[in-house]
Each structure stands twice: as C-alpha cells, then as structure tokens.
Amino acid sequence: MSASGTPTTPKETLSNVNVTAALDVEGNFPLESVQIDGLVVLKIIKHCREFFPSPVTGQLLGLDVNGVLEVTNCFPFPGAKAEDENELVDGARYQVDMMRCLREVNVDNNTVGWYQSTYLGSFVTHKLIETQYNYQQTFNNKSVVIVHDVSRSTHSNLSLRAFRFSQAFMEAQKEDKFTTESLIKNKLTFSNIFEELPITVKNSHLVTALLHSLDDYEHVIPKSASLDKEKVVSPLSPNFDTLELSLDPYIEKNLEFLLESVEEHTQEQNTYAFWQRSVAREQTKIQVALQKRKQENVSRLASGLEPLPEDDIHKNHKLPAEPSRLDSLLITSQINNYCKQLNQYSGPTLGKLFISGELQK
Amino acid sequence: MPIDAATSALNLSFPPTTTAGFVVPQSRSFTVSVNPVVLFSILDHYLRRQENQHRVIGTLLGVRSEDGSEVEVRNCFPVPHDETQNQNQVAVDMEYHHNMFELHKKVNAKEIIVGWYATGSNLNQWNALIQDFYSKEVMPPFQAIHLTMDTDLKNEEKLLGVKTYVGAPIGISAKPENCLFLPVPCDVKYFDAERSGLDLLASAKDELSRSTSLISDMDNLEKTIVAVQKMLERISDYVNKVLDGSIPSNNTIGRFLMDTISVVPKIDKAEFEKMFNSHLQDLLMVVYLANMTRTQLAIAERLQLLV
Domain named MPN: which ranges (chain A) (predicted)? Predict the structure, then answer.
C-alpha cells in the first residue's frame, strides 16, 4: 500500500482486515448469525419472567464483527405507563442515561437490537413491526429482535429466537404501500417477512470456571437450623422437567389463540372482498356514465355542438383505495407460527407418551 | 448449594429475646440466597475493569423477607471506584450509584439496595469504610450484605469462592474503619424459568470453544432421556454386581431403590389402554388440524403471488 509498491507485511494486512470488518459502517457484510453472551441470556430470562405475562422489552448492546452479531450486554426498559406523552420523553431519557452510565464501566456502548418477551408466540404485532423497522433502518440492517417465550421455556427447552426483516419487507415498508401489486413486485409473502438467524451462546473463561464450580456437588454443608448433614443438590444437577406429561393447558391456550387469529383473518378477508365489490360497482357506474356521454356526444355532433370531454367522468368517479394488506400478512404469519408451535410441541409429547406406555408393560 | 469449600463453622442465631413479656421468635438465622444472574454480572464487570484496577465493586439489589432473616439478591450493577496509593483512602462514585439505582427502580420497583459486592477475597480497611457507607444506604435496622467473589482463584480448591458477610462493630470506639465481618451462609437459588437457560449455559462449559447453539425440543428430550438411560444402566449394573456377590450389599441403597421403582403407578391394563389411546387421538387430531391450516396458508401464499 506504500507508494513505492513494496508489499505490506502480512501482519499489517491482517489487522487492516479486522478493523474494516469490525467497523463495517456501510453494511457490506450481511449478518449470518447472532452470538449471545451467557449473561445476556440470564438477564433476558429474568426480566421476562418477572413481568410475565405482560410483554416487556429491552435493549441489546454489543458489536458486530465479521457477519456475527455479538451481544454482550442488555438492559430492560421500564414498563408502559398510562400517559403516552410523558412516556416517550421518559423512555428516550432513560435510554440515554442508562447508556451513559454503562459506558463508565466499560460496557459496549453500541446498540445492536432489542428484545421482547412473548406469550405463546403471539409476537407478530404492529408495534413489533414499527420498532424493528426503526431499529433496522437506523442501524443499517445490523439490528435484530430477540424473542423469548417464557411459557415455553418453563419445563422445557429454552425458547429464544432472533429475527430481522427481509430485504423485501424493508422495501415495502419504506414505501408504506401494501397493495397487491407492491407485494408481487417485492415477492413478499407471509413466510418471508422475517429471517431467522441462528443463535449461539458463548461464555467467558471466568464464567466457565463458575459453571464448573456450580456443578461440583461433593460439598456437603450442614444446614444451620438442624445439625444433620443434608446432601445439598447442586444447581446444575440433571433437569428432568422436560419429561413432564401434562399437555392440556399449553395446547388449549395455543388452540384458543389460533382460533382468534383465524377469526381476525376472516375479517380481513371480508374487508378485502368488500373493497373488491365496491370497486366493481364503481367500474360499472363509470361504464354507464361513459355510455351516456358517448350518446350525448353523438347527438351533439349531429346538432353541431362541441363534444363534451370524457375526462371529468373519470374525475367524478374515483375508485376507492385498496386497503393495506399488511394486516392480513401479519395475521397469516401469526397463524403459521401457532401451527408450527403446535407441531413442535406435539413431537416430544408423542415420544413421552410412548415412553410411559412402555413403562407399563 | 454454596459455592465454596465446606467450612466447619456453624451459624447459630441468638435465642429469642423477651421484651416486656413479648417473645420475638427467631426461628431462622440470617441467610442469603443469590440469583445466578448476579454472579455472572459480577464476573462480566470484573472482565471489563480498567487497566489499573485489581478489584471492582458494585451494588446489590434484592428483596428482603418480612422479618429480615432472609435476603434474596436478585440484581446488581457495577459502581466505579478508585483506590488511591494511600491505603486509607478510597473513592466511590456515589452519584453514579444513586443514578443507577433510580434507573433500575423505574424498571422494577420492588428491588431495594441490600448490600454491595467486591471481587478479591481479602477484607481490609477500605472494605470496612465502604461497608459503613452501604449500611447507611440500607434502611436500618437491617444490615448491609457484603458479597465477595474470589476471582484470583487463590484458595486451595481453586474455586470461585462466593462468601457473604454482615458487618459488626468491634473495638472500643465506634469508628467506621472498625468493623468485623461475620460470615453468613449463602445459597444459589433460581426460578424454574431460569433453569433451562442455566442448563444451556452449562452445556457450553464442556466445549473447547465455550459456545453452544440452541437445540430443538426433540433434541433436548433426547438428551434428557439418554441421561435417564445412563442412570438406569448404572443402577442395573450395581444390582447385578450385588447379586453376583462382588459388591457387599447395602440395605439403605436397596431400600431406596425399591422405593424409587415403586413410584411408577400401577394402573389396570384396560384403563391404561383407554387413557393412552384417547390422549394419542387428541394429540394426533391437533397435529392434523395444524398441518391442514399450514397447507391452506401455503396454497394461498402461492396464489397471491400469481394474481
């Protein structure tokens, strides 16, 4: 890179590459995956569990390096209050204050996204769309939303998913037009609104040491009140909560939500059909008026007068605007989610059912 | 479970005091339970400390039980501090502490200041000074808890010793530096919802890269079943060896095994068949309906693009 053309040392080029990768301001490296720190996982779970079942949100902090979004810390947002006006101002001020305080203790001061808790997977709402759109727009496609489902994580596998909007959806949202033609133009359907990114969880060395010492259940401590030695179970002893058999509450709730979504979907369909019918009606009216105009013109030509223009007929009869298809997109996406959840839940449940069958033999 | 070597200390509480004939029962001695989030947070702060700092401190937030005997530490935040060369002086950014507490209170109003933490296992004069400051923050008559975490790993078993203390005055005059730290038993407690998260993090500890990815529900079930299978194999191994006579039999273990196995409920065969089949039918019907809905949506999706 020097003027004389001598090759730069390999070490220099290596550091150059790393720096450019880390400071990827133009968004050239697309995000491939999300790497979350162990601390962030626990903090998200704690916050979401405390306010279950109302939805809560928070901010993610970290850095994106080489196509991997590293999330190293997070902080929760205060809950929604009654008056909206004050809430907006307070929210912004809270964010600024929190970021400033965290910078003093060397926490990464870089926002990389936000997280939200959800109840049984019902997270595809307008609010989510707006917020994620703002984030993605501001941070140049480098922000994700992490969705945590509290009800699914209890008694079973941890449910944590990272989403961001697809390019097609961003384009459509930018124009804010969700008519049928714009959907076809962007090839946008309910299944490609979100792109899900794979998540990996990484721990620091000290944390790994901590986890090893938590696992070590050779230590026996006498309880203070009674003097007989009780063997205390370590926090990391095998977790058999996944083997619980009860299925009714979860499936019931899921089916309820599914029914509601389907009802909403039919409502949307009705609105669309109504619009189509009104468009057809307008069209026939326009045709009739045009015919009359033509006849008038013929008679006027016959009597030697100027023919009347046909344009103002079009101006008088305006076609009603097409309703936004965004709602139906969201609803179908939500229905798809519920169905997928039911499938995912019933898989292991079938397995457990057959195990208990075998035990009886 | 406490994360430190077994101590031979017994924690006793004072006998109930009688004040004007009214007995104040003190059935439990003072205990502290810590949420894993706090421990992880402390380690993260320690990793991000400034170049010249050997120790870091911060505030502990939590809830206290009504009679004050049990304290649950739920959250924490770091506080910048400065240890100058002069051993007698230490500067703690109090304004920062107050600001952060206000911000945290906005999110969760229930958590109050219950104490402070420091990394590094030794306790010296500046610990006493800071303990005094925090005792003023914590509403009297309750004591401020001091939690230390041995990040230098200097103790014998090389553990990250987590110890909690309460301060007590010592000496003739009541100066802030004169403080005796009384150890208090501490425990790691967490909620069910956090269990799955903790398990996921624990599975990362055995990997070289210290990272793990999220697994699907089926894989999680498989893991648990494999674990149960291994346990059953060990037990059957043991029982076989005892029957052969190679291991002396132990009555306690035998009785314990018998109790465990008899927990499996013995249901009449026909009844069980009926329950099993109806359960299975419900499940399969739900799966069928869900799949049908999905197919419908997929068709609609294709058609929409064609219009």
Answer: 34-169
